[in-house]
Structure formats: C-alpha cells, structure tokens
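Action item from last meeting closed. Structure (231 res):
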C-alpha cells in the first residue's frame, strides 16, 4: 500500500477537494463519476476522480487513502467495512461472457465449469457468483481481453458496460459476447467512514437527479458517445 500512497500523494495535497477512486476501463463507473461530479458541484463540494485496478481502488478507499468509491455494489461494505453507502443507485452492472471460440455459448453460471475462464480481481459480484469454479484472475480488462486474444483462456466473464471500449478494437475483432446477462446489480456511491458528513449533503441532490430522470439521461448520453458492440 506504500506505493498506492505515493501515487495518490499529489491528489491528497489539494485542500478541500475529495478524491474518489474507481476501477479503470470500467464504463459503468465512468458514468457514475459523471453523475457524481455534477451532483457534488451542485452541493458546492470540490471532488476529483481517479482510477486504479479494481482491487487496488477498493483497498485505497477502504483504508482512507482516498475518500471513497465512485460506485460499487451494495454488498461491498461487507468486505470493506469502512465504506458507507449513499442509498441512491447510479447505474446498473451486468455480468456477461466473451470468447473468440466459434459456437461457444454460456446460458447460465453452471456452464462455466466446463471451461477454462478468467475474471477480473475486484469485480466482487462476479467473484461471488463464480466462487465454486476454478478460474484465473487478472487485474485489468485489457489483460482479460489479451488472455482471450492470446488463447490463454477459453472465455472471460466481465461487466458488460466495461467491455464496450474494448470489444471493437482491432486487436480484439474476433472476440464476441457469448451469453445473456448472467447477473444484474445496481451500483451505489460509497464514502469512507471519515466522510459520512457528505451523505446528508449529496443524498437529496442524487435523489432529485434520479427522480427527474437526469441520472438516466447522463448514462444514455455517455453510452451513445461510445462505439457499441455489434452483438
């Protein structure tokens, strides 16, 4: 964690600015960060967002080296007890499988036991859903897609939105989605326990943004700005 602190040090020097982290290459969390930037601005609170690998982000936010997580599943505080949920869902996250093997299809979690598959360490809802199966871990989405490209795994299971930026890159042109949504959950903003005073300030703003449809509009606008997968 010393290396994480050194990496964060320039950000932590900024007085009265709260820093929230999220998993890099994760579209759902990028959407959530846009929602939070607008909401905190309306509360006259300065924030910034930074990204790490999924697991390092959680460790940094739980330890208090950053001020919280941009967005995580509701149960994350069971594993990281210093994270306190702001009870307004920001965006959905969906687990899906990808492969480049022709005619391979996954219809349910139990189908995974037939194959060598890979997930990203720190995607806790996928870790929990696959805990009964042997699997490999990588730290980033690029590493997961590279494992498929280089034939080091049969398939990967990743959050659907997080794959959008990668699935049409030229080097990944043979990789296709091979499953329906295997699990769908909501993501929430979390603050470190030292920052619970922020909840009373940000909660009514997020509730109003949710009620008005603004949160949904931000998500749809962001997704339209991306090149989507063909399937």
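Sequence:
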């Amino acid at each position: 964690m010393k290396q994480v602190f050194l990496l964060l040090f320039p950000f932590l020097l900024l007085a009265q600015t709260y820093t929230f982290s999220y998993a890099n290459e994760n579209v759902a969390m990028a959407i959530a960060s846009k929602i939070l930037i607008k909401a905190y601005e309306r509360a006259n609170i300065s924030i910034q967002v930074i990204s790490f690998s999924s697991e390092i982000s959680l460790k940094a936010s739980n330890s208090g080296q950053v001020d919280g997580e941009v967005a995580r599943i509701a149960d994350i505080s069971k594993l990281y007890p210093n994270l306190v949920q702001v009870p307004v869902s920001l965006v959905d996250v969906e687990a899906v499988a990808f492969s480049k093997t022709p005619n391979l299809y996954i219809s349910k979690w139990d189908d995974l036991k037939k194959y060598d598959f890979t997930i990203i360490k720190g995607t806790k809802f996928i870790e929990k859903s696959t805990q009964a199966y042997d699997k490999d871990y990588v730290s980033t989405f690029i590493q997961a897609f590279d494992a498929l490209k280089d034939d080091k795994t049969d398939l990967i299971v990743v959050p659907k939105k997080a794959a959008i930026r990668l699935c049409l890159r030229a080097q990944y042109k043979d990789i296709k989605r091979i499953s329906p949504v295997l699990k769908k959950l909501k993501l929430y903003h979390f603050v470190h326990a030292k920052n619970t005073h922020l909840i009373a300030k940000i909660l009514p703003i997020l509730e109003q943004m949710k009620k008005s449809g603004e949160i949904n509009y931000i998500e749809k606008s962001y997704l339209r700005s991306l090149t989507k997968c063909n399937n």
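Note appended to the action item: Residues 2-90+187-224 form a domain with the D-Maltodextrin-Binding Protein; domain 2 fold (CATH 3.40.190.10).
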